[in-house]
Write the structure tokens for this entry.
Amino acid sequence: MHLVLIGPPGCGKGTQATRVAAARAVPHISTGDILRHAVASGSMLGEAVADAMSRGELVSDEIITDLVAERLADLDAKSGFVLDGFPRTVEQGIALDILMEERGGLAVVELTAPDDELVRRLARRRTIEGRVDDEESVVRERLAVYRKSTAPVLEFYRRRGALLTLNGDLPPEAVTQLILREVESIHV
Ligand code: AMP
């Protein structure tokens, strides 16, 4: 399984990526998690991305593509993966195509939920996890960045007939079942 999950902040990408990856025994690769660990560890990578992340902006395509290339080269990703948070720009989508050469097809799932539900979930997550980018003004910026930079990625995959759009506004277990059932039918 080579699955990409795309959707606005709060759509449930992270939760679903964890569950689907566990069900299929492949790694869950979250670029947001990798970057947050880098920031927490105070590494050079962390220092380079901390400002952009705290403002809700994207880090550079080059940094993120190098990071994903490195992670996909790990042994555990050889038989498949669930990618969460990448690609977020068309440039990253093109880079992923190159990384996928000779690895077989991608399945791409868009998870949707109404804006007021997204905002509600992120406000709750901010209380529980304390993510600074879940603060309301940053959430607004992240939603704007999603519409401007990431929505075109959906078109990029839709044109190939590879995109599956699923309702993320259901109980988590129902969304997981939906993804596992529908994903068999799509390949780039
Ligand atoms: P996430 O946990 O996926 O919501 O990502 C948190 C933050 O990490 C984003 O708001 C961006 O600042 C950064 N980030 C994660 N993935 C990417 C990506 N593919 N391209 C650029 N920035 C990213």
Observations:
- The domain at 2-185 is CATH 3.40.50.300 (Rossmann fold).
- Strands lie at 2-6, 28-30, 81-84, 107-112, 163-167.
